[in-house]
Design a protein that fits this description.
Blueprint (H helix, E strand, L loop, with lengths): L1 H25 E4 L3 E7 L2 E2 L7 E4 L5 E7 L3 E11 L5 E12 L2 H6 L4 H17 L4 H6 L1 H16 L4 E12 L2 H43 L2 H16 L11 H17 L1
């Protein structure tokens, strides 16, 4: 009788262990940023599971977790020949996230790897159709074109590409020196233009001043006295300044008149 009791107790414990194991393998918890794609006997369920707690059928259902968070994927440096035949190296970063977890699982084998490969080929294709100056000066437009193309191609996979940013453009040393010379020449050209415009404006002001002095001759004397004042403030050992003939002509006329009388 006692032996039968122990056998029944062992059987009950074994059954309880099986039940606990069955329940523990049936209960799944999915985080807020995840979704679970469930395959039941090889066929995908219409709606993904989660977030939170739910049950699956052990040995019948297969669960695949998919993260819905935005992924920042670095695109390796690519060798690109621009439209004006300049060899450059460009790398970028792609920001994308999963919108449809079922498509991301059943439409593509590895959506992260495939998105990376697609980003590399798209980067080479689009940058090969633009010139170097456009790449350096209008990166915002190129980023928008890259994002549009990638988003359109990854849409059947349930992927949304939110942004593509070019990180670095590596130019050959010869091209860097040529661009530096071009920038230096451009700055010299601007400096010469600014200096010429300054001379032109100064000449116009001098003409206006001369016209004003012609209308008011006394202004010449005032300007002369102002110049003397400026010279007097400087620490010069010798000061030489001209005397206008108008100031000495009356004296010369008196001397000449006196000489004639004599």
């Amino acid at each position: 009788m006692e032996q039968l009791f122990y056998e029944n107790l062992t059987t009950i414990m074994f059954v309880m262990v099986l039940v606990v194991g069955f329940i523990s393998s049936s209960v799944k918890i999915i985080k807020e940023y995840e979704r679970a794609v469930v395959f039941r006997l090889g066929r995908v369920l219409k709606q993904p599971k989660g977030p939170g707690l739910f049950l699956i059928i052990p040995f019948v259902d297969k669960l695949i977790r998919v993260s819905l968070r935005t992924v920042a994927m670095d695109v390796p440096s690519q060798d690109v020949i621009s439209r004006d035949n300049v060899s450059i190296k460009v790398n970028a970063v792609v920001y994308f996230r999963v919108l449809d977890s079922i498509k991301a699982v059943i439409e593509v084998e590895d959506y992260v790897y495939n998105t990376s490969q697609l980003a590399q080929t798209t980067l080479r294709s689009i940058l090969g159709s633009v010139e170097l100056d456009e790449l350096l000066s209008d990166q915002e437009k190129i980023n928008t074109d890259l994002q549009t193309v990638l988003d359109r191609q990854t849409d059947p996979w349930g992927i949304k590409v939110s942004a593509v940013e070019i990180k670095h453009v590596d130019l050959p040393q010869e091209m860097q020196r040529a661009m530096a010379k071009q920038a230096e020449a451009e700055r010299e050209r601007r400096a010469k233009i600014i200096a010429a415009e300054g001379e032109q404006q100064a000449a116009e002001k001098m003409v206006q001043a001369a016209e004003q002095m012609e209308k008011h001759p006394i202004s010449v004397q005032l300007r002369y006295l102002q110049t003397l004042q400026q010279i007097a403030t400087e620490n010069n050992s010798t000061t030489i300044f001209p005397i206008p003939m108008d100031m000495i002509m009356p004296f010369m006329d008196k001397v000449l008149s006196k000489n004639k009388k004599d």
